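#struct-help
A.M.: can someone run this one for me? Single chain, 215 residues.
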Amino acid sequence: MRIDPARITPALTALFRLWVQSIRYRDGGSLGPVRACLDAGRPVVLALWHEELFSLTGYGTTVLPGRFATVVSDSRDGELIAQVLLRIGFVTARGSSTRGGLKALNQLRQHMTDGRIGVITVDGPRGPRQQAKDGAVYLSQKAGALLFPVRCRPSSVYVFRRSWDHFQLPMPFCTCLVRIGEPLQFAPGKMSSEELHRGSLRLEQALRDTLPDKS
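D.P.: on it. C-alpha cells below:
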C-alpha cells in the first residue's frame, strides 16, 4: 500500500523534534570556524556519513536552525524525507548519484549562493558504506566553498546492522558528541576525474580523523 507523505509527515516531524530536544549535544566549540565563514560570507559545505544523518540533522536544527540545504533522493522514500526536512527548516535539491545527481548539485549550489549551508551525505544514498563519492568535492570546488567533515558519537545508540550503512539511531536523553574537522579547500578551475577521486579520498580520511574510532 502506498503511503501519502502529506498524511504522515506532520506526525513524523513532531516525533523527530521531540526526540532531538531530548538529546544533549556537545561540540566543544568546533562549530566556531563554520560560524566565522558564514559571518564572512564564505560558502560552506558539510560532509557527513549517511549512518550519522539522524543525529547530525538534529544537531543542525539545534545550533543553526533554518540555515541548511541538502540533496534528497528523487524517489518515493525521498519524498517522505524531503517533506519532513522542509518542515524542520531545510531546503532540498532532489536527485542522487544514480539519478539527477548533477542537476541536484547545481540546485544545491544555488541554495548556497542564497546563503544556505550545503550538506551532503557523501556515501549515500546506497553506499558503499564510508566510501565518499565525488559530489561533495565537486560542489565545494565549483562553489569556492570550504568543505568541513562532520562526525558524531551518541553515548547510547541503536545500530541497524542489516542496513547498508549501519544506520545509527541515537537513544532519547543521550549525550551526543559532535566534532567538525579542519576544512578542505580546492583550487578553482576544471578538475579531472582523477583529481576529483583524490579529493574524495582526502575527504574520507578527514572524516576518519575528525572522530577516530574507539580503540
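A.M.: thanks! Residues 24-208 form one domain.
D.P.: also worth noting: The chain has seven helices and nine strands.
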